[in-house]
């Protein structure tokens, strides 16, 4: 066969790079960055190469399987047909809901859903069909504080300003490491190249992080900051800005006086005591941000998934807005996506506390409860107890606090289905696993990441390979399940109305007479591709899937543009910084007099991402797992010496919720008082997962140490950074 060149989107991380792939029939010959791509400009990272390994991976499931035997090494997995699998899953979901109520079936949506067009167009509708208040997602171990503040300040949970990195003169990154992660809540492919350009035009990068990260190493300045104490530093920056008269907010920004009053107690000196960052440096940074021709402050994982995440993200928005950097070139700006899910009202503005979790009373946000309550909602008996779980592209046993306890809880469910193509720490508890097609077998359009990208572009990515005849896409799985669930429910209602008993007799009703079924069919009828086409057309962009598909790299719609105040969804088209929810929380913070460390013996545990890791999966891809071990605990030489720990020793790590043993690496890349461990490891412990080709199962799961009882006060977001841990040498 002849070699052919194709252009696709990499769906493995938020950077969403455009790739140039050479294929020969069913074989990938090479994968490169697409140089002419207007967004990613040729960028590629080692993970993209793994796309072909996922494609050919013998560990990957290609047919539905049913578990026989208890979860673990004794379990065997029996292949079953799609039809049988869909019926089985739909019946069990309908039965559980009929017996125990709608909320007895929970759903968890994992991270890859946002990277799958079909999961967004159809998977979300499946979750709506299940109609349970017990809906969870990776958002509450991630960016929930961003959504809260976007809703409060800009009137819509998805109205998230992104740093205009291509024009800024000062980029301040707090708690993120784009040199490894390739950026987050900021789709910024080719961060290294964009940073080089920033420096070439005389701009500066400043990083605040408890670890001298890959990004800190290429920054103009890096400040160590004690985990969990950023709020004090950010409030002190606001204190300097307001007390020195360095503010110049746009006329649509309100609340300066209230913010000034609220931050008055948070002096740089106090911030120094709490954070370890010298007061003089805090003052200098505040003045730099105010004085720069343009500046963009961006805070991510390290300041979202920590004790004061909501306050931190609010303070970041305030700094940008009060220095006049919100909505100006080189500051933080809103995108103008070709498909505007916000403008089309396909995404709601968000709400907080419309209901609460049954056991602990944590609030929902935007229709989801914090995943930190999932285990207790399964294991606490009573009305409203979760009895079944639908897990879509997620591995919460690895990814959420006390995941090991969640695993125990999953074992007690009446029923569980996983939509996943691997047998993982989580899916091994499922009764049925439904594997979707792989990333090279499906069409893609970034509904989410064009909304968060540093440049306005629109890119269609056609499936590189036809799917095998028997395979199903994520969207097809969602559609089948939703249809069968609705049909069964209607048949049941029909049988009840007729005084018939049981599902068998209910077959009297034919599908064509069932109104909800007909409605559902209509809702799920169009393919993801048709939906994208419709959305492009409906917005009269002049774009279509066909046009985009014919343009490698897609359409370049230009740099970010000024959008305010028109783009605001607040009723009065103003940005209100003086949010009572947050200002009240500051009072609580004010009462915290001691640094965030627990006992003086404890160190504070933080996370890290490596360029060749991808959350909880891809550890069975040999070319991503070769080289130096990446699973180790980093510890500062001073802390190691205090505990007679040497490089390479195995140490015991003990937190309020767990204990693990792990080999360590002594390095002054972490500040004293801090230890650092990646998440997504620990596969070796989970009996019966299928990663036969994993080169190494070394490492432990970080989330045996994180505590589901400790959550961010306003949103219930998980605290994954700044966890007090005891560290000692294992003898
Ligand atoms: N301690 C600690 N914990 C963390 C984090 C941290 O920094 N520290 N980070 C958190 C963050 S930011 C996130 S987003 C979460 C991520 O955690 P999860 O939401 O659990 O997501 P992943 O680990 O990416 O697992 C995804 C699963 O989806 C499957 N999958 C991959 N692609 C597809 C697909 O196209 N379709 C389907 N159906 N399945 C697919 C994979 O096989 C894998 O089993 O982890 C969180 N947990
Ligand atoms: N290679 C790779 N890329 C990824 C992923 C991956 O797993 N691997 N995951 C993807 C996902 S789901 C996400 S959400 C993004 C996340 O992207 P990033 O936000 O860049 O994620 P991290 O690399 O975890 O960076 C968090 C940083 O916060 C620091 N930190 C920890 N605690 C604190 C604190 O209290 N204060 C401050 N200031 N800093 C702190 C850590 O040292 C770390 O450097 O990455 C995405 N990209
Ligand atoms: S940076 Fe992300 S999107 Fe780009 S090639 Fe790597 S994994 Fe794919
Ligand atoms: Mo994430």
UniProtKB/TrEMBL annotation:
InterPro entries: Asp_de-COase-like_dom_sf, MoPterin_dinucl-bd_dom, Mopterin_OxRdtase, Mopterin_OxRdtase_4Fe-4S_dom, Prok_Mopterin_Oxidored. Residues 2-59 form the 4Fe-4S Mo/W bis-MGD-type domain. It comes from the Bacteria. Keywords: Iron, Iron-sulfur, Metal-binding. Coiled coil: none annotated. PROSITE patterns: 4FE4S_MOW_BIS_MGD (PS51669). Pfam families: Molybdop_Fe4S4, Molybdopterin, Molydop_binding. GO terms for molecular function: iron-sulfur cluster binding; metal ion binding; molybdopterin cofactor binding; oxidoreductase activity. Gene3D superfamilies: 2.40.40.20, 3.40.50.740, ADC-like domains, Dimethylsulfoxide Reductase, domain 2. PANTHER family: ASSIMILATORY NITRATE REDUCTASE CATALYTIC SUBUNIT, TRIMETHYLAMINE-N-OXIDE REDUCTASE. Belongs to the prokaryotic molybdopterin-containing oxidoreductase family. This is Putative oxidoreductase. It comes from Nostocoides jenkinsii Ben 74.
């Amino acid at each position: 066969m002849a070699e052919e060149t194709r252009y696709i989107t990499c769906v493995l991380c938020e950077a969403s790079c455009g790739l140039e792939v050479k294929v020969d029939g069913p074989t990938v010959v090479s994968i490169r960055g697409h140089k002419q791509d207007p967004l990613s400009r040729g960028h590629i990272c080692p993970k993209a190469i793994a796309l072909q390994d996922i494609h050919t991976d013998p560990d990957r499931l290609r047919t539905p399987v049913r578990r026989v035997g208890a979860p673990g090494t004794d379990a065997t997995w029996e292949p079953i047909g799609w039809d049988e699998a869909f019926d089985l899953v739909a019946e069990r979901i309908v039965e559980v809901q009929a017996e125990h109520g709608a909320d007895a079936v929970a759903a968890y949506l994992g991270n890859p859903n946002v990277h799958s067009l079909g999961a967004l167009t159809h998977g979300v509708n499946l979750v709506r069909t299940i109609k349970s208040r017990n809906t969870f997602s990776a958002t509450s171990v991630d960016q929930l504080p961003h959504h809260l503040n976007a809703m409060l300040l800009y009137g819509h949970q998805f109205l998230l300003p992104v740093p205009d990195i291509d024009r800024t003169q000062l980029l301040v990154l707090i708690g993120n490491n784009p040199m490894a992660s390739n950026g987050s809540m900021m789709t910024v492919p080719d961060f290294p190249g964009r940073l080089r350009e920033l420096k070439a035009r005389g701009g500066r990068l400043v990083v605040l992080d408890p670890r001298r990260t890959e990004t800190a190493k290429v920054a103009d300045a890096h400040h160590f900051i004690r985990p969990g104490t950023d709020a004090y530093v950010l409030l002190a920056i606001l204190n300097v800005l307001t007390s020195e008269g360095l503010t110049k907010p746009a006329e649509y920004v309100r609340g300066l006086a209230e913010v000034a009053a609220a931050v008055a107690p948070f002096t740089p000196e106090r911030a120094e005591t709490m954070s370890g960052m010298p007061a003089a440096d805090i003052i200098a940074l505040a003045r730099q941000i105010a004085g720069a021709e343009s500046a963009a402050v961006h805070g991510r994982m390290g300041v979202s998934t920590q004790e004061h995440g909501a306050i931190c993200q609010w303070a970041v928005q305030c700094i940008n807005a009060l220095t006049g950097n919100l909505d100006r070139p080189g500051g933080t700006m809103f995108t103008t996506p070709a498909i505007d899910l916000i403008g089309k009202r396909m995404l709601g503005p968000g709400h907080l506390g419309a209901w609460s979790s049954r056991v602990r009373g944590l609030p929902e946000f935007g229709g989801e409860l914090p995943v930190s309550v999932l285990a207790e909602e399964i294991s606490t008996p009573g009305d409203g107890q979760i009895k079944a779980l639908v897990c879509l592209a997620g591995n919460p046993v690895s990814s959420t606090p006390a995941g090991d306890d969640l695993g125990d809880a999953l074992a007690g469910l009446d029923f569980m289905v996983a939509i996943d193509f691997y047998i993982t720490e989580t899916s091994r508890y499922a009764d049925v696993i439904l594997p979707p097609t792989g990333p090279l077998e499906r069409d893609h359009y970034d509904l989410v990441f064009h909304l968060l990208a540093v440049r306005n572009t629109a890119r269609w990515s056609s499936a590189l390979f036809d799917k095998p005849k028997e395979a199903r896409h994520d969207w097809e799985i969602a559609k089948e399940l939703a249809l069968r669930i609705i049909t069964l429910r209607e048949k049941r209602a029909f049988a009840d109305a007729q005084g018939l008993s049981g599902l068998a007799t209910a077959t009297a009703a034919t599908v064509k007479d069932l109104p909800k079924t007909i409605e559902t069919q209509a809702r799920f009828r169009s393919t993801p591709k048709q939906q994208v086409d419709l959305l492009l057309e409906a917005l009269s962009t002049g774009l279509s899937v066909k046009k985009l598909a014919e343009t490698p790299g897609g359409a370049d719609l230009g740099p970010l543009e000024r959008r305010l105040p028109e783009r605001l969804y607040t009723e009065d088209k103003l940005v209100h910084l003086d949010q009572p929810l947050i200002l009240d929380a500051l009072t609580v913070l004010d009462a915290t007099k001691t640094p965030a460390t627990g006992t003086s013996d404890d160190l504070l545990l933080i996370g890290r991402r490596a360029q060749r890791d991808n959350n909880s999966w891809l550890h069975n891809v040999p070319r991503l797992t070769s080289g130096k071990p990446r699973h180790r605990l980093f510890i500062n030489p001073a802390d190691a010496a205090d505990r007679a720990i040497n490089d390479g020793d195995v140490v015991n790590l003990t937190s309020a919720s767990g204990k693990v043993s792990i080999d360590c690496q002594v390095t002054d890349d972490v500040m004293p008082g801090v230890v650092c461990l990646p998440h997504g490891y620990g596969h070796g412990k989970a009996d019966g997962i299928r990663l036969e080709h994993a080169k190494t199962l070394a490492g432990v799961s970080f989330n045996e140490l994180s505590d589901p009882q400790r959550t961010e006060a306003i949103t219930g977001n998980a605290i994954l950074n700044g966890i007090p841990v005891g560290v000692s040498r294992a003898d």
